[in-house]
Amino acid sequence: MFVLLSHLQRLRRAIAAPGPGRRGSLALRHVDAGSCNGCEHELTAVMSPFYDLQQYGLSIVASPRHADVLLVTGAITTRMAPALRAAHEAMPEPRLVAALGDCALGCNVLGLREQLAGPLEGIVAVDLRIPGCPPSPAVIADALTAALLARGEDRTVSGEPPAPAGGRR
Amino acid sequence: MTARPDGASGPRSAAAITRVAPAGWRPACLRAHADGARFAGLFGAPRGGRAVELRAVFSTPAGERVIACETPERAVESVVDVLPAAAWDEREAHDLHGVRFVGHEPLRPLLDHDAALERWTVPVAGRDAHQVAVGPVHAGVIESGHFRFHVVGELILSLDLRLFYKRRGLEAAATGRPAEDAIAYAQRACAACAVTSSVACAQACEAALGLAPDDELRRARTVLLELERVYNHLHDISAICAGVGFAPGAAAYAALKERVQRLNLRLAGHRFLFGSVRLGGSDLAPAAADVADARAQLRTTGDEHAALWRQLHFSRSLQERLDAVGVLGRDDAERLGAVGPAARAAGLRRDVRSESTRLCYGGFAPVTPAVPAGDVASRMTQRAIELEQSLAVLDELLADPPAPGRTRAIGPTAAVAVGRVESPRGATTCLVELDGRRLRALHLRTGSYANWPSLVHAVPGSLLADFPLINKSFELCYACVDR
Ligand code: SF4
Fold first, then answer.
1. What 8-state DSSP symbol labels residue B280?
2. What is the ipTM of this complex?
3. Does residue B453 surpass a pLDDT of 60?
4. pLDDT in tens, B324-374
5. Who is most buried in A76, B77, B96, B319, counting CB within 10 A?
6. Residue pair B441/B176 in contact by the 8 Å Cβ criterion
7. What is the CATH number that goes with domain B170-474?
8. Element (H, E) at B431
9. What is the DSSP string of B198-238?
10. Is A119 touching ligand 1 by the criterion CB < 6 Å?
């Protein structure tokens, strides 16, 4: 265990992991609405030691009730559209919706018309577009930290306190 | 082992096809099974009117055999009593094409999501028995699918799956397209098996067109396949650690995986190697310096893996969670048609790589753990030893930089052909039917498809809290099953 932990410490030094970010947080909820699983792999990588988004206050939460951002991947199959809508409706306001990857954005989708309900835009309003097939962890990290900063600035401009999101401080 | 182009036996030509009448379907399948051929998939394709074309693929060390049958009445005798491995295939052909498999009772819906709950779940009754429904949306970053656990308290009595939420209709959408496009559809099925499915599809199309790969093409594809296996196995070990909340192990292996994916990007232009396989040739030609670097990096990966693995091995809190959990015994693995690391961890020493004449695996011999117990611990160990094996194959293949490869015409063309490739999760079968140079049918049966029934079998008797761990130890894809 000790060896493992010191290995991690060395690793963090070697890859110059990002330092602590500014204050604030966004709780993220992911819904796979018909992906090839590539976007999921990259989203998971964003939470790995190389990108370590948790320290910016970005974390994946277990329920849409706890989430500020809905991250949607995949071509939006007709079979997943109802569950996607339910997850979206379960989220407290204010909420953001992110289309993660080309499929969710409706680019280069393969499949039968009758099996597909996408793109995401036609189902719920999209606030954040993260293109790529799949978008690389660096691109995802940039897009999410930018959203976090933008949200912080909105708050300053309007002078309002951050709206409470379910389950958070 | 030596990884050299297999000169002893040249690439096999297209599969041997036996055409039978509907009444001959079951006898022909049972005969193939009795002869020792291994079931590798059963597919239905619509024909004119009501008719459906059924094809069963059996694999033998000498090549694939296909049993084909057009059934105007959409009914044949089932083979599941003798070949339980065909259960999902029959259920799928029923749901998609309305084929009745007489004797398959009850024929539960597999893709049909409109079916009532009682029709697709196995009835469980008794004191305090109740159901726990999970999904299709899960708590983590996981693919979508629905699980229905029958439990008493924490104890799982049985599990029913409802997958196919991610069905995009890729195979049907590919029908009618030029053969060159087939690979894009096969690749799209699943990122984690992208190379495997692409190569299986390329092999099938090339066999149908009477083409054989040259040595460079075999070598390039083998490099890509092994790179895919390495990042997947690193991912899987990380996921098993995460499955028990063992964060140091999960983070360390996630970092190794990230490094290999960066290597993929450098060598082949994509972190998941998308677009690296095409019909009839290979353009993989990385610079010599990049290849030398990659080789050095892969050696470092092997060293780090060896050191980390030793640490995992001596972490009691981790090991205590893995032993004797989610057991898939050898006989059950055989009966249910398990493939890949899950089958080898149960003691079935087989791997498509040892018979892949269209790839560069000369002298390859499958490995198993010293004690193949078929539990989570064995499946994790299996990944670890296969990693070493794959890194050794890559080290040898990357001694010289891959150069562009091509195919040459070797023999007659055929309407139907099969490609078989070992994915990180096991044997993947791709069957294509061509009409000239156009696809008349494309079928993909990945290692994950073959293994879901084995997962279902390994779960009962475990605690609910162990399910995520058991699930991770199989680490099956949903995307390429749903297609
Ligand atoms: S955008 Fe690309 S990686 Fe993401 S789900 Fe679609 S095909 Fe897969």
1. T
2. 0.93
3. yes
4. 899 999 999 999 999 999 999 999 999 999 988 899 898 899 999 999 999
5. A76
6. no
7. 1.10.645.10
8. strand B426-435
9. HHHHHHHHHHHTTEEE-HHHHHHHHHHHHHHHHHHHHHHHH
10. no
CATH architecture classification, B16-102: 2-Layer Sandwich (3.30)
Instruction: Report yes or no on A24 lying in a domain.
Output: yes
- Strand segments, DSSP code E, in B48-173 are 52-60, 63-71, 75-77, 100-102, 130-134, 146-152, 155-162
How much is the pTM?
0.92
Q: Atom 6, ligand 1: which residue's CA is nearest? A: A103
pLDDT at position A164: 40
Residue of B nearest to A88 (CA): B137
Query: What's residue B7's pLDDT?
Result: 36
Domain containing residue A145: 2-158
Q: Which two tokens stand for residue A43?
A: 């989203």
pLDDT band at B11 (very low <50, low <70, confident <90, very high): low
**Residues from chain B contacting residue A48 (CB–CB below 8 Å):** 251, 254-255, 257-258
Q: What is the pLDDT of residue A6?
A: 83
Of B164, B173, B254, Cβ closest to residue A79: B164
> Does the CB atom of residue A71 touch ligand 1 within 6 A?
no
CA B109–ligand 1 middle distance (angstroms): 28
Please tell me the total count of domains within chain A.
1
Residue A50 and residue B260: Cα distance in Å, rounded? 13
Instruction: Tell me what pLDDT residue A50 has.
Output: 86
Query: Distance (Å) from the C-alpha of residue A127 to the closest C-alpha of chain B?
Result: 20
Residues of chain B with CATH 1.10.645.10: 170-474
Q: For residue A115, give the CATH number of its domain.
A: 3.40.50.12280
Sign of CA dihedral A55, A61, A65, A68: positive
Q: Which of B112, B141, B170, B314 to mutate to test the interface with A (most CBs of A within 10 A)?
A: B141
How high is the pLDDT of residue A22?
Answer: 58
Q: Which two three-digit tokens encode residue B355?
A: 């018979």
The CATH 3.30.460.80 domain(s) of chain B lie at: 16-102
Pull the structure tokens for residue B22.
Answer: 């509907």
